[in-house]
């Protein structure tokens, strides 16, 4: 959390300007892979953006898709940036909260939960149980995560975090990340009452880049045994 707070404070000091978005790019490259359409029709639906950062994607869904979006961000500096940028966007509720705490306290289930890269920084054993709790059977979860590191290191084969670096100007901020393989993510989802609908590979389209991302779309099912799998 300290690193993300430092990240937000840096951009507040610098007055960093970033444009609005008209789609969700789940990886790091504009136009690569599916966009907001993977979330389906969101008109009037209650949506959660987990680890929402600056809030641009949550604002896009509220503004352009008629969604009612709770944007949850744990970094006070990032939350401050979002409040300054979107003081009165209809349909957008900016919330400063730890992701797991918010999900655990949610009384009304969400119709859709999504996250751009947020789950890379959250312990799956802590966040997946409360994600399942916050969705009704049949409702969906969509999230993108880093699949390989910036040096091309392969994903882990066990549910263990690794220390990575968040670039910020001329410094590197330490962050703890869960960079897991697709099969391991599917096992974790199934173990916590989800069925995996699709996985999308998100790679750089134009130039060599060792970083690769994955977009997972899953559906909440009635509670199943940990070994019940998709076919």
TrEMBL record:
Give the protein's recorded name. Class I SAM-dependent methyltransferase
Specify the superkingdom.
Bacteria
Q: Which UniProt keywords apply?
A: Methyltransferase, Transferase
Source taxonomy = Bacteria, Bacillati, Actinomycetota, Actinomycetes, Kitasatosporales
Domain Methyltransferase span(s) in chain numbering:
47-138
Q: Which organism is it from?
A: Streptomyces ureilyticus
GO terms for biological process?
methylation
Keyword hit for Transferase: yes
Does the keyword field hold Methyltransferase? yes
Q: Please provide, alphabetically and separated by semicolons, the GO molecular function terms listed in this UniProt record.
A: methyltransferase activity
């Amino acid at each position: 959390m300290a690193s993300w707070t430092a990240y937000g404070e840096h951009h507040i000091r610098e007055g960093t300007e970033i444009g609005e978005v008209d789609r969700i790019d789940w990886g790091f490259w504009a136009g690569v892979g599916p966009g907001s359409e993977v979330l389906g029709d969101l008109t009037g639906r209650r949506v959660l953006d987990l680890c929402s950062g600056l809030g641009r994607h949550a604002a896009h869904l509220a503004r352009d898709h008629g969604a009612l979006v709770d944007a949850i961000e744990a970094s006070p500096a990032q939350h401050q940036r979002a409040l300054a940028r979107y003081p009165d966007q209809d349909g957008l509720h900016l919330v400063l909260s730890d992701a797991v705490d918010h999900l655990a306290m949610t009384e009304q289930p969400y119709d859709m939960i999504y996250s751009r890269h947020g789950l890379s920084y959250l312990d799956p054993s802590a966040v997946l149980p409360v994600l399942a709790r916050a969705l009704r059977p049949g409702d969906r979860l969509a999230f993108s995560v880093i699949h390989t590191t910036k040096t091309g290191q392969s994903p882990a084969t066990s549910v263990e975090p690794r220390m990575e670096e968040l670039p910020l100007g001329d410094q590197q901020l330490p962050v703890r990340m869960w960079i897991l393989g697709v099969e391991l993510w599917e096992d974790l989802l199934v173990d916590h009452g989800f069925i995996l609908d699709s996985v999308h590979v998100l790679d750089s389209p134009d130039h060599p880049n060792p970083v690769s991302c994955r977009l997972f779309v899953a559906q909440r099912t009635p509670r199943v045994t940990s070994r019940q799998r998709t076919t």
